[in-house]
Every structure is written in structure tokens, then in C-alpha cells.
Amino acid sequence: MTPGIHLLHKPVGPTSFSVVQTCIKSLKPAPGHRPPRICHGGTLDPFASGLLLILVEPATRLFDYLHDIPKTYEAVVRWGIETDNGDPQGAVVSNGDASALSAGQLDAALASFVGWRDQTPHATSARRVDGERAYIKAHRGETVVMPPAKVYLHEAAWLSHDLPNSSRLRLTVRGGYYVRALGRDLGRLLGCGAHLCELRRASIGPWVDPGLDNVVEINGRGLLPWAQARVLTDQEVGDLRERGTIGMGTLQPPEWNVPEGFPPPGGIVRGFHREKFCFLLEKLEIQLKVVTALRGGL
Fold first, then answer.
1. Strand runs (DSSP E) across 57-131, as ranges?
2. Catalytic status, residue 209
3. The CATH number of 1-120+152-218 is which of 3.30.2350.10, 2.60.120.200, 3.40.50.2000, 3.40.50.720?
4. The domain 219-298 belongs to what CATH superfamily?
5. Mean pLDDT of all residues in the chain?
6. pLDDT at 220 over 80
7. What pTM does this model have?
């Protein structure tokens, strides 16, 4: 796995962390060299499948810039049962009567969650509480109080219904959204309880799930294509390394745009030198300032 972002399909079963560990073990460093830096670009629960981003070497520095872009999921909501973690592997905490559910009711309930809303994730989520992942605390048996967070649901639609048992849903969200929490909250709003029995991440920004046993490598202009770009001269690269700033110059538009109405991503600028992505830059009045240097380029 060369430096860049790699698109993988995570099947149901393994954790995102275990996939990263498998990638690390497959890359044997030369004697005397450190193991490569690798991380994933957003957790998928063990019961979930779909697109997992693997960030390699300097691309690990791009992690924070993957939060603001749209992520699309497909989920199956199981009506009448709420579990403690919102998925089929959790303990049942309540049962309800879903026999009266109708497609019209479900449309109205789903519409009420569109836009910016407060959402409280499950205690088994990957969100940090007091500097530690909530699920680690929960697995130790600690009582975890999850604070609500502001999240964004761009659009959602039911694809099919098998009432009163289940319904299939497709939704597009901003990073930080918990689809398991949406399933739980829909069940509570409708008075019958619910959890997710299937979840698949179909896409992140312009990148789609490549399918089982396929890997797609992204580098160069394909990285963060929703951000503006700036072509750098040799002199400007030297200035950035020495002073950390250059003139604004001519900024090129993004190669990919978020959907209409979606909150625009942060105003980062990609700096390219000899066709390699070498710097993350931010606008500072009439200048560009280095946020991160991507050593060796991508």
C-alpha cells in the first residue's frame, strides 16, 4: 500500500481497527525502518459493511478533513425491538408493538430528523468522553453519560418496507452522524422501539464502496477534491518551508462539489508542486499559510 488513501470494502464481522492491523502486518518494513503509519478514515461497526478509507503515511494527516463531507449509507431498521447499542448484537432493552405502522407515518417521522439536530449516540459509540472512546469505558462496565452533539442529516428516504417487521433506508449525512442513533430515535418517536439490523456505507464524498476484494488507490488531485488548489513554484515551496506563508496567487476551483444545500466544507487549500500534493494551506487575509506539510508529497 503506497502513500495515499485506499478505498476498501469492509465486510460484516471484523472491526475497523482489525482491518488496519491487517494492513500494517501486510507491509513489512525494511530492517531498521519503522512500520508505516496507517489509520482508517472513519469507523464502521463490526455488524456494518461498506466503504472503509485506509490512510497511509502522509495521508494520515488528512484525517480531520474527511469530517465535513457527505457520507451515504443504506440501513435496514428492525421495528418493535430496541437494543442497548442499536444493532443486532446488542441486548434487548424493550419490545413494542409495530403492527400499526404505515408508510405515511414513517415518511413523516423520518422527515422530522432532516437538517441540523441534537443527537445522543449510544454509550458503545467511538465518540470520545473525557479523552477516551466511549465504547472502551462501556466495555469496562463503567456508566457512560453521552452528551448530545449537533449533527446534520442532509436527506433520507425509505427504499422499501416489510411492515411491521422492517424497512430499508438510504440517507446522506455529514461526518459525526450515528445511523444507529437515528434508528433508535425513530423507534422511540413512533412508540414501538427499533434498532438497525443491517448497515452499509455506500460512499464518502466522491468515493464509492469498491466491493469485496477490490482496492482503489487515491492520490494527487484525487485527494480532498472538494477543496481549492494552488500550484506552487520551486521558489514558493522554499518560502513555505522557510517562512510558512506565500501570496494568495491564483486558486483553482474544486474538482468535486458537495451536493446542493450541503454545508460547505472548511476552507482548506491544497498546495501542489510538480503534480504532487505537498501542503495543506489555509487562507490568511491576502496570504496562504501552511497548516501541514505532507513530507514526500502524495
1. 70-79, 81-83, 92-95, 115-119, 128-129
2. no
3. 3.30.2350.10
4. PUA domain (2.30.130.10)
5. 92
6. yes
7. 0.91
